Amino acid sequence: MEKPALIQGCKVGLVAPAGPIDEKKLQIAIENVERLGFVAVPAKGILNKYGYLAGDDKSRAEQINSMFADKEIKAIVAVRGGFGCAKILDLIDYEIIKNNPKPLCGYSDLTALLIAIYLKTGIVTYHSEMFGIQGSSYSQKCFCDMLCSVYKNKTIPMPSKSVCKKHKFNINPQTIVEGVGQGILVGGNLTLLLSLIGTVYDFNYDGKLLFFEEINEPPYKIDRMLTQLQMCHKLDSLSGVIIGVNEGCDAKENSLSLDEVIQNHFGNRSYPVVKDFPFGHIPIRCTLPIGAMAKLTLKTGKKAHLLVK
Predict the structure, then answer these.
(1) Does the annotation count 239 as an active-site position?
(2) Which of 97, 162, 261, 281 is 20 to 30 A distant from 77 in Cα terms?
(3) pLDDT per position as a tens digit, 251-284
(4) Is residue 233 flagged as an active site residue?
(5) What is the DSSP string of 200-213?
(6) Res. 1: pLDDT tops 60
(7) Which of 213, 214, 217, 265 is catalytic?
């Protein structure tokens, strides 16, 4: 019988494989981990700084490799994103990871690392809360619900009205195309997904349930990115698409709206498509397991339903 990844009192490793962090952000991360009942263990060198990176490539990769090698660490969570994960993918010891499977968690720039580890090892990784960023009670509950029990047969919950009101977000997923789709969940930040195309860390999109989000990009840039995916035939044979909350991507003057861009790319698809799902660069983030089988059920006028199988 499968066991949950985390139990109360176990050790959670904290890493900074991308942008640098300071003592204050590290302390926030430690407090967030301990508030959930776990013991925070910062990686060696986590406070290193090398320009816009948390140390040189070798030292950032070593944070990941050493945390997977340490058998006392039961899960690894990034403190922040930024930029830099793609630069260390060739320095990751995937054999160590295969022999010491445990959850790696984060979002944004972590997309590259989450997908690479899933592809190279088959281990499920988690697009989730990063504890150096103050999230919401919803985000923390989703993290614990997914990692403190067996992730299978779980419905991704929607945030309550009180959580939405507190954080000034009205999370209300909207069905673009009705239907039912089943496939392996894969995705993350849209820019990072594109950065993997043409590399050994690219993946076959056929039959996948693709999820993506973006931040601070105007609609024309998102249009450009989705057009590139289409030209690479990445969008043709999906089993479904789940679009998060794209914070800061509103249209300016003389622009198509983001809704129009999404409609143009996905409005006539043969698979189910939903937008404004609770994840992205916002405080209200669900936890999505990359590499897990899931089923998306969408019907206009009904709540979006995503079941991790």
Answers:
(1) no
(2) 162
(3) 888 899 999 999 999 999 999 999 999 999 999 9
(4) no
(5) TT----TT-EEEEE
(6) no
(7) 213
